[in-house]
Structures are given as C-alpha cells and as structure tokens.
Amino acid sequence: MTSDTVNSVSTTAIRVAAAQVNTTVGDIDGNSQLIEKWIKLAQLQQAELIAFPELTITGYPPEDLVLYDNFIEANKIALRHIATKVKDIVALVGFVDSEDGKLFNSAAVLHQGKIVTTY
C-alpha cells in the first residue's frame, strides 16, 4: 500500500485485480483451478486484492444444480481448498452458501489460508 496526502486528507492506495473469468457451469474442479491460477497471476502483478464474479466456483447460472446437496457441499469444499492457497493477497470469491435449507448467492473473503467471512 502507498500513502499520500491530497488536500490535507491522507489517502491509501491499493492495487486491485478484477478477474473477469470464463467459468463452466457445474465444473467446480475446473473453475477452482481457474480461480487459483488467477490468484497466482494477481500476486505476480503485486495486487493486494482480487475480486471474482458471482458464483465463480459453480459457474453462472448454476440453475437446477443447486437443488443437489452434494453439489452445494462440493462447492463449499472447493472454497475451503481455495482458501488454503490464498496467502498475502485478499480474494473475494463467489459461491453458493446454504443455511437451514435456504440457498444464498454468496461471496467469501479469503486471506492467509482462511475464509475470513462470507456475505
């Protein structure tokens, strides 16, 4: 991060990477590999944050695939695996979350090998 003072207001700049990726609906493994590749590329470009589109892990739109519990669980397992690959960069990754039988188009914040939070 860099800091400057502009008109007596302190500002901090960060380098952000926007990953406009072409996912494949239902290909959780392939999409996960794509996400990991883009995270590495962003780190090489010294980005501090990389943001992925909604439902990047499952591909968009997953449609009736979200009706299968094993599909939802596989996308959560993939998210946990991707998190272990994230170190010094912050990654915002789209996935399908579920709670009490309800489905959510969610985003996870990943950093230092962990899922920091989900929205």
TrEMBL record:
A GO cellular-component term linked to this record: cytoplasm
One Pfam family in the UniProt entry: CN_hydrolase
GO BP annotations listed: NAD+ biosynthetic process
Protein name: CN hydrolase domain-containing protein
Keywords, ordered alphabetically: Ligase
Keyword field contains Cell membrane: no
Entry's Gene Ontology molecular function annotations: glutaminase activity; NAD+ synthase (glutamine-hydrolyzing) activity
Residue ranges of every copy of the CN hydrolase domain listed in the record: 14-119
UniProt keyword annotation of Ligase present: yes
